[in-house]
Each structure stands twice: as structure tokens, then as C-alpha cells.
Design brief:
The chain is mostly helical and about 325 residues long. It is built from ten helices and no strands.
């Protein structure tokens, strides 16, 4: 949670999207989308993963195309079943977010390259445990590593100066999921990749888990009116992640972006049915540069801090 107390961005509008008469075809279609949107995404991740294993597709080719498809799918859903219409990116924000997305992808590739170059001899070609046992083990390992490094990004003053860049926007949507400092991505994803490589998970299991994690990472950030009910206690969701960006520090836990079990285990789970943030973002505009000032944002961690770092849990 941010130490800088967040700036209220205003109470969200009560309507999630343009009103449709109850019982009309439009109303029924939106209701169906709200129920089916997440299962369709999970089915796509499983199907692509299974096909990649069956046909031996290369991870460096499968993952980018799957990611682009995921972003396109969720962006379409943001228009069809939005959580808040005011959270749609403007044309100017789309340009900013596009630059950040490319920087994030480059940083992710760099992190993977550095880890692979360092521990490539430790990563077996074939599963050690048997693939269907190794996949859930790799998911739990990577999810725990991601949770820990994300929480450190909020509680360590030095790491917060990198990670806080992600919390500057006063809206949460698919497009600004890529608003990150490049070194935050290198550190966070490098840590996760290193944990998976050192334990010795095979490339096949890492690929399958990576597809699920990528889908989840963009799903939880999506500005869509989707609720997953009791599954919130196992899987991360947009309902939880909006609270993570909340300006109310008492509810802004939820460091898991794929599984929510670690938030339960480490007492950072705050979601309950119907709980929504009144506003998201930061409180002190001087603590971080505006999102659109990309060059200044990249240099920000080395500027003299005006106040002490991150939020404590």
C-alpha cells in the first residue's frame, strides 16, 4: 500500500455502462457477457497451452500473440460491459500507454534473457515430476514469488520509487496495466523467473503457467463489470485489484494478480462482496511525475525523494 496517501479521484459513477431496458436483447447479451467473459478467457489460456504442448510451439512466438489477443479481447469487453465509463482511456492516454506497453514488453524480455543466460543449465528440457504435476507446482511457486516481490515493491522505500509509477493513474483499465517503470518489471519478473529456473521447472510448464499468468494479469486490471463470487478466494479478480489501487489504505491489499491464496495466508486480503473503492490513485501529485511525462518518470527513482517511501501493510 502506498505510503503517500492517495488523492481522491471522485466517487465512481453508479452506472457501469449505457442503460439497457431490463429484458431487452441488449440487456440479456450484457448479462451473458458478464457471466461468460472470464470462463472464455480461462478456456483460451488452457487451449493455447494445450496446443503449444501438443505441437511444440515456441514460447517466444506463442506468448506475444496470446498476450495481444488477450489485450484485444479485454479491451473490447471494456466497451461492452464497462465497470466505469469514466475509466476509458482518452486518445492521449492511449498514446502514453502504448509507449509504456512497449517498454514493459522490452523489460520483460530483458528479465527473461538475463535469467535464462544465468541459469540456463539448470532448466531441464523435459519435466522432472511429470508435466501435470509440475504445472500446478510451477504456478504456486511463481505466484508466491510474484506476491512477495510485489509486496516488497510497496513496503521497501527504494523499490517503491520504481513500483509507484504503476499507481499514478487515477483509473484502472487494461491499457494502463503496462504503465510501469522498466526496472520495476526487470526486478519483479526477473525474481519470478529466477525462482522458477532455480527450482528447475521445465520450459513446457513455465510456458503453460506463463499463459495463465499473462491472462490473469490483464484480466484483474480490466475495467469490466465482471464478478467471480466465491472464486475470489482462490483467484485474483478485477474486484480485488481495484481495491489494491484504492486511495483508502485500509482496503488496498491484494498483492496477488493470479492467485488470491497468498493474500489470505499473509493477511492482505480485504475484499468482501460489494466492496468497491471510492477512488484510485495517489494523493501527492508531487511524489511522482504525471504518467504522460515518460522520460521524467524513467528518471524519477534517482531524483531526491521529497518524502519517505512506500506504504506499509
Amino acid at each position: 500500500m502506498e505510503n503517500c496517501e492517495p488523492l481522491p479521484g471522485g466517487v465512481p459513477e453508479p452506472a457501469a455502462g449505457p442503460r439497457a431496458r431490463k429484458g431487452s436483447p441488449t440487456h440479456r447479451a450484457r448479462a451473458l457477457l458478464r457471466v461468460s467473459a472470464y470462463p472464455v478467457l480461462l478456456l483460451a489460456a488452457v487451449s493455447v497451452g494445450a496446443a503449444a504442448l501438443r505441437f511444440g510451439w515456441r514460447p517466444d512466438r506463442v506468448s506475444p500473440f496470446f498476450l495481444i489477443g488477450t489485450v484485444a479481447y479485454l479491451t473490447a469487453l471494456e466497451r461492452l460491459i464497462p465497470y466505469q465509463r469514466s475509466w476509458h482511456p482518452s486518445a492521449r492516454e492511449w498514446r502514453w500507454y502504448g509507449v509504456y506497453f512497449l517498454l514493459t514488453m522490452a523489460a520483460s524480455g530483458l528479465a527473461q534473457y538475463l535469467v535464462t543466460a544465468t541459469v540456463s543449465l539448470l532448466t531441464p528440457e523435459e519435466p522432472v515430476l511429470g508435466l501435470w504435476a509440475e504445472i500446478p507446482a510451477a504456478l504456486l511457486t511463481g505466484s508466491l514469488a510474484s506476491y512477495l516481490v510485489h509486496r516488497l515493491g510497496h513496503t521497501n522505500p527504494i523499490l517503491w520509487r520504481f513500483h509507484g509509477v504503476h499507481h499514478v493513474p487515477d483509473k484502472v483499465n487494461v491499457a494502463n496495466n503496462g504503465v510501469n517503470h522498466v526496472l520495476d518489471i526487470v526486478i519483479a519478473q526477473g525474481f519470478v523467473q529466477l525462482a522458477l529456473a532455480l527450482i528447475g521447472f521445465s520450459r513446457e510448464s513455465v510456458l503453460v503457467v506463463g499463459l495463465f499468468v499473462a491472462a490473469q494479469g490483464y484480466f484483474v486490471h480490466a475495467n469490466i463489470d465482471v464478478r467471480i463470487g466465491p472464486f475470489n478466494h482462490l483467484l485474483a479478480s478485477p474486484e480485488q485489484h481495484r481495491l489494491h489501487h484504492s486511495t483508502d489504505l485500509s482496503e488496498a491489499g491484494h498483492y496477488g494478480s493470479d492467485l488470491s491464496i497468498w493474500d489470505h495466508l499473509f493477511d492482505s486480503y480485504t475484499w468482501r462482496p460489494g466492496r468497491e473503492p471510492l477512488a484510485v490513485g495517489l494523493s501527492d501529485p508531487a511524489s511522482f511525475p504525471p504518467t504522460g511525462e515518460i522520460a521524467i518518470t524513467l528518471l524519477h527513482p534517482w531524483r531526491r525523494a521529497k518524502r519517505a517511501g512506500p506504504g506499509a501493510v
